[in-house]
Amino acid sequence: MRALILAALIVCALPAFGQANKPETLTLNFNDADIVEVIRYVADRTGKTVIIDPRVKGKVQVFTNGEVTQDQAYSLLLSILDIHGFTAYENDGVVRVVPNKDVRSSPIPVTSNAVSKTGDEYVTEVIVLRNISAAKVLPVLRPLVAQHAHMAAYDPSNSIVISDTAANIARVKKIIAQIDTAAVAHTEIIELEYAPVAEALKMLEQLLSGDAGKDTGNLKMVADARTNSLLVSGDELQRSRVRGLVSRLDRPQAQTGNVRVLYLEYAKAADVAQVLAKLLQNIEKSASTDKTSTSKASVEADESTNALLITAEGDTLESLLQVVQRLDIRRAQVLVEAVIAEIEDVDGKDLGIQWLFADRNGGFGATSSGDGTLSAAGELVLSEDDDVLEQLAGAIGTLTGTTLGLGDFDGEKGFVALINALQEKTNSNILSTPSVLTTDNHEAEIAVGQEVPFVTGSFTSTEGNVSNPFQTIERQNVGITLRVTPHVNEGNKIILDIVQEVSSLTGETSASDVITNERSITTQVLAADGQVVVLGGLMRDNVQTYQSRVPVLGSIPLLGRLFRSNRDQITKTNLLVFIRATVIRDDDTLTGTTAEKYRFIREQQLLRRERKGLSLDRKLLPVVPEWPIAPDTDLSGYSDTLDAIDAEKAKKDD
After folding, report:
1. How large is the average pLDDT for residues 588-607?
2. Of 171, 273, 436, 602, whose CB count within 10 A is highest?
3. Residue 332: CB partners within 8 Å, gap ≥ 6?
4. Is residue 13 predicted with pLDDT exceeding 50?
5. What is the 3 state secondary structure string of 251-288?
6. H helix runs in 89-148, sequence order
């Protein structure tokens, strides 16, 4: 024995008279001994052939109180190895000592339920569960084994494969024996939609009859033909197996023959039928050279159910089905928002002097702007009537600005002078934001305006003393019209065919009818998803200068002002049209877009209801309900109560 073994007292029990068959006993005591020497000593005394892995190293301490047999000494060696991170397994009469982390991939012996070992010897065993699922119980058992041990579930046989020490496997089997008890039987009703329940019951009984002596012994199945249902009584594992089989059996019967009925989800059946009809014409033309081909195909559309009836055979039928599958897809939607901004600035100045001189002898003279005001005022001032104030007010009441005048008449001659001065400035800022939602490649139009009557003709019929005049009128839309057709590309680009029209009344009238302003844009643009682009615009400066004067006299400095009238007007117009297209591909984006605009309207209504100075009762002002809206909410005439608004305000303050 080497010096590393400090003490090794070996007592060999000599066979006494009549005790020749008594097994040999050993007494093992090692203090800080090399583990390889200990393995060699036990192998020598037990007569086993041992192969030691080079990685097996370390010092051990072992003290026994009394004698042990050879089998006990070997078991004690396995315990020593397990404590130091090693193990030994026997295969074909050879014991191999390896680290614990390599034991899973080693050829350790496989045992069965009939043969069980104890101690720290590593073995592999297959444990079959009867009542519970192996996959479900595996997470419960995994923490009970060491990290270097192996445990896995095999669903087809409902088994657990475990590689560990025989002692730990025995402990796991005791736990499984308590868990894997027969579950309490429950009754479940399984409704069948397509398969007849009587035929399904016969097939299930044939499939499960081979397992009647195992885990399906207490399984009972009864068919209810009235409701086409199957009543299943058993534990959870049994009922789960029946449910899985029924789900595979209860399926619609596949269509046979050369006729298919396809219910479309997104596309229109009539439109798809036209496309397929043209496709069939091309297929028939290409197959016309094949004299052996006599099959005919047809496609019909049922608009009431939005379905296609396809009659074809072989490859033609399969090709048509694939085409329909690619055509019947959900189309993207596009939200088109336009901004029409128009700013107009008008500056004008008028200054004019009109005068009139006349006498009874027939002499007269005048300067006039031609609006008739001087004539009416002169007729009143130069008359002998003293009560002319009311009539004079009516004569000059049509003039804007400030009008000053004077007049004198002594019975033989008279003089009248009118001075009119006006400075005006008009600013207008018009902002319109029409928007429309449409699907890809589908034209949409939104029109907001008024139907304005325009006179197109008139006629007067006179028969004797009876007149029958009439006019013909045509009504036209005046307002904003947005017509757009989006085309969404595979990326994030959108092509927009746009027709934008803006018309309005000017407030002026010509000799025959009213005058309207009209602005229209017809174009096609390419924009990214959510990008704002400008469609077009108008920048206009209109300067008008009007002057009337008496020749020669009107050009005299200072004095010439009495013989001329001036009118200046400057009009500046800035008109720009912007547009933004947003692609909506799913329900969440559509809901978010709708909710954003809906909440904006609600906030505006609440702001107006809370505005101070209203003479109306705030309860009378309508407010739409809070988003999201329940499907059964009636939006017509909806109005929140004042208490609800106060409660909402208090919630925000908190």
Report:
1. 85
2. 273
3. 439, 440, 488, 583, 584, 585
4. no
5. CCCCCCCCEEEEECCCCCHHHHHHHHHHHHHHHHHHHC
6. 134-141
pLDDT, residue 609, reads: 77
pTM (2 d.p.): 0.49
Q: Please name every residue paired with 407 in a beta bridge, in sequence order, or none if there are none.
A: 416
- Per-residue pLDDT, 18: 38
Report the helix count and the strand count for the chain, using DSSP H and E: 12, 28
Following DSSP, what letter does each residue of 568-596 receive, concatenated? EEEEEEEEEEEEEEEEE-SHHHHHHHHHH
Determine which helix (DSSP H) or strand (DSSP E) holds 39, and give its type and residue range.
helix 35-46
List the Cα angle 423/427/432 in 5-degree steps: 160
For residue 548 the two structure tokens come to: 């009337």
* Cα three-residue angle 154-158-161, rounded to 5 degrees: 45
What does the angle CA 41 – CA 46 – CA 49 come to, to the nearest 5 degrees? 80
Q: Which two tokens stand for residue 207?
A: 């499939």
Of the candidates 270, 330, 280, the residue with the CA atom closest to the CA atom of residue 305: 270
CA–chain centroid gap for 175, Å, is 50
C-alpha span between 433 and 431 (Å, rounded): 7
Could you give the CA distance from residue 490 to residue 329 in angstroms, rounded to a whole number? 14
Beta bridge partners of 444: 484
What is the residue whose two structure tokens read 């072992």? 62
pLDDT at residue 594 is higher than 70 = yes
Tell me the mean pLDDT in the region 254-264.
78
Return the amino acid letter for 333.
Answer: Q
Q: What is the model's pLDDT at position 334?
A: 92
Q: What is the pLDDT of residue 36?
A: 76
Q: Which residue has the tokens 């329909």?
A: 324
DSSP three-state, residue 305 = coil
Q: Which of 132, 111, 131, 137 is nearest to 122 (CA)?
A: 111
Give the highest mean pLDDT range of 220-229, 284-293, 403-412: 220-229
User: In which residue are the tokens 């029990």 written?
Assistant: 13
Burial class of residue 613 in the structure, from the number of CB atoms within 10 Å of its CB (0-12 exposed, 13-18 middle, 19+ buried):
exposed
Q: Among 248, 249, 312, 309, which residue's Cα sits nearest to residue 280?
A: 312
Taking the C-alpha atoms of residue 142 and residue 378, their distance in angstroms, rounded to an integer, is: 118
Q: Assess contact for 573 and 342: CB atoms under 8 A.
A: yes
539 contacts 325 by C-beta, under 8 angstroms: no
Which residue type occupies 464? G
Token pair for 293: 């081909």
pLDDT in tens, 34-65: 777 777 777 776 777 777 777 877 777 777 77
Mean pLDDT for the chain overall: 76
Q: Cα dist. 188→196, 240, 245 in Å? A: 18, 10, 14
Residues 6 or more apart from 129 whose CB is under 8 A from it?
A: 137, 158, 159, 160, 176, 180
Name residues whose C-beta falls within 8 Å of residue 46's C-beta, 6 or more positions apart in sequence. 70, 71, 73, 74
